Structures are given as C-alpha cells and as structure tokens.
Amino acid sequence: MLPSLETALQVIQIIISLTLIALVLFQASSSGGIGSLFGGGGGGVVQRTRRGLEKTLFQLTIAVSILFVINAIVQLLIQ
After folding, report:
1. 66-73 contacts: CB < 8 A, separation 24 or more?
2. Would residue 67 count as lying in a domain?
3. Interacting residues of 68 by C-beta distance below 8 A, sequence separation 6+
4. Which of 1, 22, 26, 32 is the S-S candidate for 41 at Cβ 3.0 to 4.6 Å?
5. Neighbours of 76 (CB within 10 A)
6. What is the pLDDT of residue 65?
7. What is this structure's pTM?
8. For residue 61, which phi and psi values (nearest 5 degrees)?
9. What is d(CA 74, CA 6) in angstroms, rounded to the nearest whole number?
10. 69 in a domain, yes or no?
11. How many domains does the chain have?
C-alpha cells in the first residue's frame, strides 16, 4: 500500500517492542529466578497480591502486549 504507512507501523512496532521489554524487566520476580526453573527454588508456591506500582506495571505490560499484537496483525493485513 503506502510505503510511508508501512514504515510508520514498523517504527511503532520497534518502539512497542522496546517498551514491552523494559516493562517486563522492571517487574519484580515472584519466583527464585533461573535457579528455581531447574528445581532449586525451595518450597511451595507463594501467591502474592499485586499492589501499587507493581499492579500498574503488570496492567501496563498487558496493554502494551495487546498493542504489539494488534500492530503486528495490522502490518500483516496491509501487505
């Protein structure tokens, strides 16, 4: 279609990607890290309630990930 629209969507996708990476990295880890992935994480599952900034970051991460998917679908449709 329009080369400028495709370029704009690609730039937006890069910005959304970087934002999503930053949001995921800013979130507090509720697990023991990589060590718990292989069984070194200790006991049972502890359920925590997200409050304040942690809840806001979580909701913002979901919103940005939805924007990422929508933008990707739009890029596919205009090709």
Report:
1. 67/16, 68/13, 68/16, 68/17, 68/20, 71/9, 71/12, 71/13, 71/16, 72/13
2. yes
3. 13, 16, 17, 20
4. 32
5. 8
6. 97
7. 0.73
8. -65, -40
9. 10
10. yes
11. 1
The one-letter amino acid code at 19 reads T
Reading the block at residue 71, the tokens are 């933008």
pLDDT per position as a tens digit, 3-40 = 899 999 999 999 999 999 999 999 877 665 555 556 65
Looking at the domain assignment, is residue 11 inside a domain? no
CA atoms within 13 A on the CB side of 58: 10
* Mean pLDDT, rounded, for 64-70: 97
Q: Classify residue 68 as exposed, middle or buried by CB count within 10 Å of its CB (0-12, 13-18, 19+).
A: middle
